[in-house]
Amino acid sequence: MAKVAYVDQDECTSCSQCADNLPEVFEMNDDDLAIVISYDAEEIEEDDIQEEIDSCPGECIHWKK
């Protein structure tokens, strides 16, 4: 089963780095906070999402457990 990412919006700094780097997975909502949009886990590499998790300035992107 594929991992699913989520954004803890309480920790989001609104930098938009994730949405800029991986718009197939992340976008900014009306409050200028990052959200995970629906994506095809077969087309998006987990490593690409992990890179965004690792580089997020707010450390707000995580894998659902």
Can you describe this structure in just a few lines?
This is Ferredoxin. This protein is α+β, with helices and mostly antiparallel strands and 65 residues long. The protein contains two helices and four strands; from the N terminus they run βαββαβ.
Describe the overall structure.
The chain has 65 residues and is α+β, with helices and mostly antiparallel strands. The longest helix is centred in the C-terminal third of the chain and has 10 residues, at 46-55. It has a single domain, classed as 2-Layer Sandwich (Alpha-Beta Plaits). A hairpin with a 5-residue loop joins strand 2 and strand 3 (34-36). It has helices at 17-21, 46-55; strands at residues 5-7, 26-28, 34-36, 61-63. The protein is globular, with a radius of gyration of 11 Å.
Quick one: biggest sheet?
2 strands, antiparallel
Per DSSP, the total helix count is 2
The assigned structural class equals alpha+beta
For the record, the count of structural domains works out to 1
Helical fraction: 10-25%
Using DSSP, what is the number of strands?
Answer: 4
SSE arrangement, N to C: EHEEHE
Shape: globular
Q: In CATH, what is the class?
A: Alpha Beta
Strand coverage percent: 15-25%
Overall average pLDDT: 95
User: Cα distance, first to last residue?
Assistant: 12 Å
Q: Radius of gyration in whole Å, from Cα? A: 11 Å
CATH structural fold name: Alpha-Beta Plaits
- Unreliable runs: none
Strand order of the largest sheet: 1-4
Second rung of CATH, namely the architecture: 2-Layer Sandwich
